Amino acid sequence: MRRLYFLIVVFLLIFLPQMGLAYDSRICQQSSVCLEKEVGVFMQGISKGCGNSGNCSLADIMTVFVNVGNYVVGIIGGIVLLMYVIGGFFMLVSGGNNERVKKGKQYMTISTIGLIIVMFSYLGIYALRGVLQYGSVALTDAKNEYVACSGPTVEGTSCDLNSTCTNGGYTCESVCRQNHPDSTKTTSGNLTIIRGYDCVDTDTQASSSSEGNPFYNPSTCQKKLCPGDDSVQCCQIEYSYVE
């Protein structure tokens, strides 16, 4: 069942963006990114363009991957802790009973294996994000060490290349999105045009309009404001649709 839910989320993020361009749902309004109370725990942190209009970037898709991974890892971590408690209980009340001692040791062994799985799963989530988004496993460079956005204590701390923790310390957001949090919407007759800024892979993203698909304006692009190499730049994104 979890696999089915996961596939549904991926399908919605990858195959429905163009359908989402036909309307602006205005689900996300209170911050520069979508909050948990607006889109749910798995999609919190995605851009407003993705949440409202289906204009999702690779960064938005990876945000969902990381959210789902953290949720699953959290559940496994809770189970591991419970197993440690049960194992310790059996050993404390064993009273020299070899069977209880043996059972307690079994629980402790299983818990230790589970803890190792949790640790490697957590590392694997961020390694996968690095490979898919930046082509590299490492999420740090020679000068910086990044933190996980886990609450108010890390607000404003570097969480990725050219990114800091925002939204109360729970969202890792690029400097690009922080500098350009809002999009503009203009209407002329039945034609609606939406413009905003986001991180764009200039090697693959279209730089001219093609059948109403989103495209970026090369003259607006700035380097060193986004995660990734210099091909990933902060650019004005534009798309239009007929209502």
TrEMBL record:
Organism name: Candidatus Uhrbacteria bacterium GW2011_GWF2_39_13
Annotated keywords: Membrane, Transmembrane, Transmembrane helix
Protein name as it appears in the record: Uncharacterized protein
Keyword Membrane: yes
Segments passing through the bilayer: 71-95, 107-128
